[in-house]
Amino acid sequence: MIKYEVIIYWSEEDQSFIAEVPELAGCMADGQSYQEALANVEVVIQEWIETATELGRSIPEPKGRLMYA
């Protein structure tokens, strides 16, 4: 399960949804629907991690979020 924060927004310029992963520099994807952008960015996250591993670069730990009782 991917635990990185994903921000999804509509881009008028691109006429598509953009999904960004702030914790992984340059990691983003797009899609014609919210769900498609999310599915695409999940693939890109895995590719980002695989590439970083192959290049011997560090992979940031997902940031924890506060949980309220």
Structure write-up:
This protein has one helix at 34-54, and strands at 7-11, 16-20, 28-31. With 69 residues, the chain is α+β, with helices and mostly antiparallel strands. Strands 1-2-3 form a three-stranded antiparallel beta sheet, covered by helices on one side. It is elongated. The two termini are 23 Å apart.
| Rounded radius of gyration (Å) | 13 Å
Shape: elongated
Report the span from N to C terminus. 23 Å
In spatial order, strands of the major sheet run: 1-2-3
Task: Indicate the low-confidence ranges by residue numbers.
Answer: none
Features:
69 residues; alpha+beta; 3-stranded antiparallel sheet; 1 helix
SSE order and pairing:
Blueprint: E1 7-11, E2 16-20, E3 28-31, H1 34-54
Antiparallel strand pairs: 1-2, 2-3
In short:
The chain has one helix at residues 34-54; strands at 7-11, 16-20, 28-31.
